[in-house]
Each structure stands twice: as structure tokens, then as C-alpha cells.
Amino acid sequence: MPTTPSTTARSKRAGSQLTPDAIIEASLRIAARGSQDAFTVRRLGEELGADPTAIYRHFRDKDELLLSVADRTLGEVLDSIPEGLDWKDRIRALAAGSLEVALKYPVVGSAMASRTTRRPHEFRVVELILGAVMEAGLTGRDAAVHYRMVGDSLLAFVGQQAAYLLFTPDVRAADESSWSREYRLVDPEQFPNITRLSAELPEVTDEQIFHIRVEALISAIETRARTLRET
Amino acid sequence: MPTTPSTTARSKRAGSQLTPDAIIEASLRIAARGSQDAFTVRRLGEELGADPTAIYRHFRDKDELLLSVADRTLGEVLDSIPEGLDWKDRIRALAAGSLEVALKYPVVGSAMASRTTRRPHEFRVVELILGAVMEAGLTGRDAAVHYRMVGDSLLAFVGQQAAYLLFTPDVRAADESSWSREYRLVDPEQFPNITRLSAELPEVTDEQIFHIRVEALISAIETRARTLRET
DNA sequence: ACCTGAACACCGTTCAAGT
DNA sequence: ACCTGAACACCGTTCAAGT
Fold first, then answer.
1. Its Gene Ontology molecular function terms (chains A, B) (predicted)?
2. Average pLDDT of chain B to the nearest whole number
């Protein structure tokens, strides 16, 4: 028995040689478990059936691995966007796909909120947004600035929602109940607006907020394009 | 000499008794050092001249301390907003003040991007934003949803910029140079839009992006108020 | 009543040793 | 050429012991 290695966890990985792709896929499996499984190099080693430090043979450090993992998830986002949409619906589809994927892999969505992967799938996302703002009628500096507005805003929005999923249940519960607890108990004299809207504030959903945020981005592009046409 | 305690680091804190306020102020001093000094309980003990674990006598855990520290920084934001502004300029002043304070205490700005302090200064910020959207003409559910759009968006925007300041210099340098490196080298056939805007994209500044993001929020409120007036 | 300090259960990463 | 595993320099938090 000790002489046949075929039944150990490690040898089950058929070939037992680590590859960048295998490490990225193991990372995605861990990331998909959300807050119940931290994305650490030690857990990654477990998932791969290898020593935790083995990944350093294939990635300079954890940050470089994260960028590769993130670029892979951008592939999922791109795959979710149908062909033949006009510029507004392309931005809407990108937003919806980004949110879905960020909530599927919260640790990735959260960590990338102020980053760039600098990798192929990100190039395609940039190309897509630039195509949309140019189809809307923007050029040169206007196109560049409005691309950044859309790209950075989408990253910030989905990153914000993704980060929330990583908090422990008790922290999330305390934050969520604040509208019906702390904000219900404020002094009506000092905070008349909060008091007046105390019934409506807890009712607002993340989906509503995300929707009007995305529409605000589209409106901003439209308004700028109209201003340019009129002058 | 050993009998007089007046020259030790600890006794310099006049009374040598820790208070929540002293801990919050020490936290702000560390946070203001940005990426060159991590905000850890051990460093906090150093800053206070006390044992690292002494803070657990005054705060349940590091998260509760963070919420108190964050609420204190919201006080700085509120102090920066002049009286007598109309609703648009109040939102602009809140945005500018939030960004300034978040960049002054990056670890706080970053950590609060998807949180609520549930504390007095935050109540005042919420009251301010609600007052602005109601002055613009929104009521009930519309006011609640647009308040959340403004509040959550400002947190996301300033948190995104603050988080960036916490990365190591080499990570920041690699991200910043991507427009003039990786994005300059893309295939012009496959990425015509990126190629066409390769000169403009690196020129866009964080200030420009922040400005149009805030104006987009104001426009969204204005547009909704006009729609309601017209029906 | 409050503070100390050892201890616990974690992190990412390096490097000499193995195969 | 690649993987292992001990080791290092960190984390936040608990708890028995001190004063």
C-alpha cells in the first residue's frame, strides 16, 4: 500500500504537476465560496493537494495571481454580453454581467475595485466601453474621460457590493439593521428629514440603487454628446 | 531614578489612563501616515505607550474602534461644509470634503466604502443629503432612493481612491504605467478604439473623473425632479 | 477597574533541502 | 525543474495573572 501513490490526494491530480491554469481554477473555486472560506495561499495549497508555497513557482506573489484570476473572471463577464446591442444596452449588459460575476467571486470583485489587470480580457472590456462612448458621439479627450467614468464607476459599484459579502454575518447584520434601529431612534427635532423618511429608507434595495447609478452614467454620456452636437 | 515614573513613555500621557478618545486620536495619527504605517493593534499600543491589548478594555474589537474612528472623520467632513449653499453646492462640498478626508486617512476611507458607522456624525451627513434631494424636489421613495445613490456612490468613489493609496509603491507604479505600457502595445486590428485613444487615455486625471462622477449624480437628481414636475 | 503579557490561531513569503 | 517544509516576521484576539 505505501508503495502505490495512486490513492493519495495529490496523485489524483493526474500528472501531479502544477500549472498556472490549475492554480487559477483552484483560486476561483475558493473565491466562489465567499465569506465562508478565506482566499489564502495555505487554503490554495489544500485545494491543489500541494504544499502552500508551491504556487510561488508559477506566480511571483499573491498579487500577480490575483490579477490573473481577475482577468479570468472578466472573460466570464464578456461571455455574458450578447451581440448586436446598441451602446446603451452594451453598457447595461456590461454592468449587469460585472455585478453578477463580482458577487459570484466576492474576494476578486472586492480586491479589484481600485486595480487594473493589465491583461487581455481587460483590454476587451476597455475596447467595449470606448466603442460605446464613441458610438454615443464622443471623441478624443471626451471619450477618454467618459470611458474612465464608466470603467472606474462600475469597478467601484460592484467592488462595494462584493466587499460587503466578505464581512462576518454579525457585522453584516448590524449594518443592515441600522435603518430600523439606530436611524429609527434619532431625535426628530435634530433630524427631521431622517424622521420623515424612516419608513422609506429601509425599503430601498441594492438592485434599485445599482440601476439608477448605471442609468446616471448613461445619461451623463448622452448629455455630453448632445451638448457637443448643439455647439 | 527607578522610583520616579515621570520620564517613561507611558507616564507622559498625563494620568496614564486610556480613554476611548485617546485611542481614537492615536488611531487617526496612524491612519494619517498612509501606506507607510499599517493600522494594527500592535502599532496602536506603541502609539499609546501601552500594551497592544489594552484597547480591548474600551472597544469590543478592532471593527468597533474603526466605526468610531470613521465617525470622527465624518466630523471633519461636516466642518468643511460652509453654510448657506443651495442643494447642488451642498452635495459638491460634501463630495469634495469626503474625498479630502478619505485621502488624509486612507485606511479609514478604504475600510468604510461598504459600511455604515451608525453614529451621530453619520446621522448629520444623511440628514444633509436628504435635505439636498428634498430641496431638489424629490419626496418619499424617490428621495430615499436618490439619497442612497448619492451616499453609497460617494463612499464608493472616495473609498476606491483611498484604497489605492494603501498599495505598495511597486504595485501602484505598475498599475499607473499600464496606459503607457500594456495598453500602448495592444494589437491595433483587434483593439482599434484603444489604439485611437492611446494618447488621451493616460492624460485623464483622478480629479476630472471625480468631478464628472459627482456632476452625474446631481444631474440624475435634477432629471428625476423635472420628470416629476412635468407629470 | 484596568492593564499586562503569554499564548493561540492565523497571515504571506523566503530559502535551503529534497526529488 | 519543480516541490517541500521549516522558518520568519507579521496579524487580531483571549485569558489568566498582576496592580
1. DNA-binding transcription factor activity; transcription cis-regulatory region binding
2. 93
Domain ranges of chain A: 1-59, 70-166+200-230
pLDDT of residue A8: 35
Q: Which helix (H) or strand (E) holds B65?
A: helix B62-79
Helix B20-31 and helix B62-79: axis angle, to 10°?
A: 70
Q: How far is CA B91 from CA A69, A158, B154, in A?
A: 37, 23, 10
What's the pLDDT band for B231 if we cut at 50, 70, 90? confident
The yes-or-no verdict on residue B229 having pLDDT over 50 is yes
Averaged pLDDT, A45-64: 97
Q: How far is the CA of B170 from the C1' of C6 (A)?
A: 37
Cell of A188: 426628530
Predicted model pTM: 0.93
Return the C-alpha torsion angle A168, A174, A176, A178, nearest 10: -160
Write the residue in B123, B131, B212 that is nearest to A220 by C-beta: B212
Residue in B149, B172, B223 to test binding to A, most A beta-carbons within 10 Å: B149
pLDDT tens digit sequence for A165-217: 999 999 999 999 999 999 999 999 999 999 999 999 999 999 999 999 999 99
Q: CA triplet A52, A54, A60: central angle to 5 degrees?
A: 105
Chain C nucleotides with an atom closer than 7 Å to a protein C-beta: 2-6, 10-15
CA closest to C15 C1', residue: A53
Cα A23 to Cα A30, A43, A56, B50, B110, distances in angstroms: 11, 12, 11, 43, 29
Measured CA B41 to C1' D11 distance, in angstroms: 9
CATH topology of domain A70-166+200-230: Tetracycline Repressor; domain 2 (1.10.357)
Q: For B8-37, how does the pLDDT look when each residue is reduced to its tens digit (9 = 90+)? A: 333 333 336 899 999 999 999 999 999 999
Residue A17 DSSP symbol: -
**Per-residue confidence (pLDDT) for residue B16, from 0 to 100:** 61
The span from the first CA to the last CA of chain A, in angstroms, equals: 83
Cβ of B41 near strand D (distance < 7 A)? yes
Helix H or strand E encompassing A138: none
All three cell numbers of B59, joined, read: 472597544
Whether the per-residue pLDDT at B129 is higher than 90: the answer is: yes
How far, in Å, are A2, A179, A199, B17 from residue B147 at the CA level? 66, 13, 14, 42
